[in-house]
Each structure stands twice: as structure tokens, then as C-alpha cells.
Amino acid sequence: MTFKELDLNANILRAVEELGFEKPSEIQEKAIPTLLTSERDLVGLAQTGTGKTAAFGLPLIQNIDTEFRAIQGLILCPTRELCMQITKELQAYAKYSEGVKIVAVYGGAAISDQIRQIKKGVNIIVGTPGRTIDLMERKVMKFDTVSTVVLDEADEMLNMGFKEDINRILKGTPAFKKTWLFSATMPKEVERIAKNYMDDPFTVTVGTKNSSAANIEHKYCLVKGRDQYHALRRFIDYSPEMFGIVFCRTRRETKEIADRLMADGCNADALHGDLSQAQRDSVMNKFRKRTLKVLVATDVAARGIDVDDVTHVFHVDLPDEIESYTHRSGRTARAGKSGVSIALVSPAKARRIKLVEKQIGKPLELVKAPSGQDICGMQLMKMIKNVHDVEVNEKGIAPFLAQIHEELKDFSKEDIIERFVSVEFNRFLKTYEKAGDINLEPSKSKDRPERDGGRNRRGDRDSEQNSKRVFINVGKIDGFENKGQLLGFLCNQSGIDGGSVGKIDLFDSFTFVGVEDGVGEKLINSMNGKNIENRDIRVEFSKDKLRNERGGGERRSTRSGSVNSSANRRSNDRGSREGGDRNFKERRKRR
Ligand code: AMP
Q: Which residues form the domain of 252?
């Protein structure tokens, strides 16, 4: 099928052709004809990278009536990065559609500029929920003329706590509007939005529900928490041509891993919520230009990354929220390319593999971290190939050749080969000469019995709770909006490694944390005696987890002013959900 057969107008066809799109992607083929002509709502189950922006963007632009100078399309998306990316794409699609005005509104940028642009006249608003509400409240924008609302990455918006904001925005739109909802996964909350706000929607699915792109190879490697970095480095060193993203669960881990990679000579940098917007832009620019080979990022910071040629995605342990696995791995294999997703799984997280497999609808292949010899061999052959293929600039080196010949005159050809190879290669030999096998055997791993049939009666998720768990009398009302924030706090305060922690159950006033051997003791020794908001922190091994979870735990009333408020979340519009430690410290300072 061609774009022309989709009934797109000549202006749009010209823009699409200029962008080099040869034929519609699957979601475009399935969605565009209906979106152009029908008044029905749509639920699109599609990952980023499938061409979904054009799937909603092209019909939205074509349906804009430029004679009517009012907002007709509203696109809500979770982060600043994604907001800018969608706007850029839409502006490219609308290049020849004269009069179609598209404005991006997002946090972390001067609101006055955005107000000025809106006042000049706009047909399509692309906004993050927080800034959109701000502008609604200032009465700069009204949505009573909106005929199409697009909720992009709806699952992520809900993950980030924008549910209330989305509800408020949707209430400001007219009943007759069409709603097009796109989501990579379909958790209950997204289904609820679809049910509440949509009228008999037609569904377009690319791949299977909650699945990832077909052209991603999903692999996992089982290593101890303390060997995760070494495994990561081995995979990176083994793939000289890789261009990848490493996902970590906390900002601290992100920084640590990026620092270690840099110290070990790898071209890496970190992207996380502690960076200023200018720093984030600078890191992203380097990654886009491929000055960086490896970007180490938290889940949230990496949302909206629109880099097409990522070959590898690594997970430094599986994410706490299984849906995040789909988002993470979707950063590779974009726009029809293929890619590899490798999860470096510690025994404490091994049980999550099953959940991931269920989520993506296919098995993860167990792979071993390459051995030192494999890596040296791979690097050596890469270097030899480079020497073989290099274009010699005879003119450029001519003035130096006589001196070079003189310096090397006593060496045989074999000597010279050995020495040239060693110049580049000694680094790898030195790193890996004593490198042993760091792989764990799944069959011997006490932490993965359910793959061998030993499933716990209560199912996969609960079987994780069989490992040791500690009870901590700290929870959401202390300002921890998510598990990552609490984990960051515990790591910072006690010096434990994020990878040595298993399942975290974060409740309002207390938390249970699954821990590896020795880690519980370390947490107990280092955290007891500390305090949070003038209250002693208490950590102990969980004795009766079920009773505790069902209400036996320490109860404290939810104080007003909890940071889990809509207004606070709004300040996170810049794509930084993981403001945990910082928010926590700031609040303590204020009190
Ligand atoms: P998206 O899923 O919207 O983030 O799109 C992923 C990438 O694919 C973007 O860089 C788009 O510009 C590109 N793209 C979208 N549609 C097509 C198409 N039909 N052919 C080639 N590339 C496309």
C-alpha cells in the first residue's frame, strides 16, 4: 500500500515524500483511513518506533480547517522531550499545509513565549498535562473548539501520576470531540480512561497487546548484583559497533554506571532527573550525533528519546514496573530496524523474568556474558578489519614516512604487526586477562524455581516474597512517590547496592523490601537510629509478611501536604519523575 492510497492530500503527500517515507507503516495503514473519515474514537496499541506519531498526526493535520482560527486538535503526552519531538514531526508533516499552526506547551521553558505563540493563533496544541493545565487556568487556552484529542503514551502519563490532570483537561473539551488514545501497554488504568472517556472506540493493535516490536531480540543474562556492571561492560566491549542505552532504576546507579564506563574508556554519559534541562539537552545532542556510544539513563529521563539507530538496550536489572520493560526495549528496533534487549538480572530479580515474558508474549533467551577471550578476539578482529579497510591518505602521510621507516627499521613485519596490535589492544588484554566466568546457572539459582515448575501457590509476583524481606516504617506519606525514590533513599543512606534489592512494596506508611543475603542486616544496622522528619526510622526483618501487608503494619495518618499532590507532580513536567531524593531534602529544609 502507498501513502496516496490512504487518501492523504497532495500537501501532506509531498511532505511525507520529502521525509523519505516510502510506504505506510502497519499502524499508519490500519489507522489513517478511518481517522480521516470516521467520527469514531480510537485506541491504538502501539510502541514508540512504529510510526504512530504520523498515524495520528497526518489525519489530524489534514482535518484542520485553517479558515477557523481556533484550537481544533489537542495532543497530550508525558514528557517535555516527547512533546518537542511530536511537535517537530507534526511541523514537518504540515510543511506544505499552509496555515496549520502547531504550538508545543511544556514545563521547564518560559511560559511567556508559549503564551505569545498561542495568542498569534494556533490549531494544534501539543502539551504535557501540567503546563496545559497552567495555561487553561490562566485562560490563555480554551478547549471548547477542540474536535480531536490525542492521548499519546497514555500508560506513561498515568504512570507519572497525571491521571487527575488528564481528567481535568478532558472535562474542558466538548462532548462531540473524537479521542484517539495511544499506549504501548494496556494496564487497567488505561482501560479505565478508555471506558470513561471514549465511546465505542475502534482498536488498532500493532503486534499483540502489551507486546514489544517483533524485530527485537530479547535476552537475559543471570549475574550477581555486584557483577552487573562487569557483565554490562563485557557486552559493550564485545559489540564494537553498538550504539546503546543502559537503563538503571535509580539516579544514583545511573551516575555510578556512567562514571565507571567513562573511567574504563567507554564513550558514555548519564541522563537523569538531577541534571538541568541544559545539561540534559547537551547529553542528548551528543547521543544523537553519536559522539556518545552509550547513554545511561533512568526510565523517566529516557522517555521520548527519538533516536532511531539504537542497536542495544541494556537493563541493569529488570524494572520494578514490568510495563517499563516494554518501554525500555522499545528504544531499539525503531522504524523497522532490528535491535537487541539484554537484561542483566540478579538472582533477587530472576523471578521477574516470567512476568516480562508474559508481558511481551515471548520468551527471553538466556545468554552468557562474553568471556575475556571472546572479547579480546572480537576486538582484535575488528581492529584488523579496520587496518585492512582503512583508506590511506598517501599525500598526507608522505612527509612523515621517511622518519617512520627509520624508527622502525630494526623490526621485522611480524614485530611491527604485534606492536601495532598491542598499542590498541593491551587495554583489553589488561582488563580481561584475569577475568573469570561471572555467569550464574539458572538451574542452580535458588531464585528461579518457578521456571522449573516450583511455582508458588499465589503466583509469580508473590513467589518473590519468599526471599528475605525487611519492614521499614517509611512510606508514601514521607514523600516517596514511587519505589525508585525509596530505593534511591535507602541506597544513599545505607550504602547498599540497588541491585541487591528485590521486590519493593511501597505502602502509605510503611514498606517491605526484598533483600539478598547480608543486605537486610546492612540496612538494619545503618538505617536504625536515623530519622525522617523527626521520627525514628525503624527497620527490621519482616516476621509475618502477610499480616503486615493486610493491615498489621504500623499505621500512621496521611498528613495533608503530602508531596503526592497534583500540583507537585506538575512541577515534574520536564520529564523528571524521579525527583525523589531532591524533593525529600527540599521538603525537609522547608519544614
Ligand atoms: P514514532 O513511532 O512516531 O516515534 O516514529 C518512529 C520513527 O519512524 C520516526 O523517526 C518517524 O519519522 C519514522 N517514520 C514514521 N513513519 C514512517 C514511514 N512510513 N516510513 C519510514 N519512517 C517512518
A: 216-371+438-445
